[in-house]
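Example record

Each entry pairs one chain with its bound ligand, zinc ion.
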Amino acid sequence: MVDREFVVPGDELGVLEEYLPTLNSYVHGWVVRAKVVGSVHADAFKHEVQVHRVKSPPVLEENNVVQAMVVGLRDTVAFLDIFYNESKKRLYVPPYRGALHISEVGLKLRNIYELLGYGDVVRARVISGKPPFSLSVRGAGYGLIFARCPKCLNPLKKRGLWLYCGNCRKIFKRKKVSKEYLVR
Ligand SMILES: [Zn+2]
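Structure tokens for the complex follow.
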């Protein structure tokens, strides 16, 4: 018998002398294998084995902390590609589309351009776990974690509260730079 509780399709559950396949399992040669992702339930008296299907966990859940890149900007909203889920330590290829509304920034802004530019990467919290995923950057630790110089595209470094381009020797005053900013 297998010693794993969870199996994926094709995993060996036992041999036919021990168990007969019932739910979500099949025989190939003399080997009983799992047909689905799930948990194994074996009955030694009846000599039966079955796999109980597990629903795949939701990809993004409310309050997950994610990293996302700005791919679109409109007056009051930014569209982002969510490519990494810090809470689940999962990379998303392809990414999931998310949206950040100006009311979820936690600052008084006239428009979203005051905060973000194309290609910027933010650290954000998921506030709706159903697509389209809504994001929030309220609170310390959230906000900009990566940006490039608009002139030379060099990654900007964090210097105090602001960002700095070593090439152009220029400071960029950006609102809502996260304390988790990646380049120092
Ligand atoms: Zn520059």
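The chain has two domains: 6-53, 65-172.
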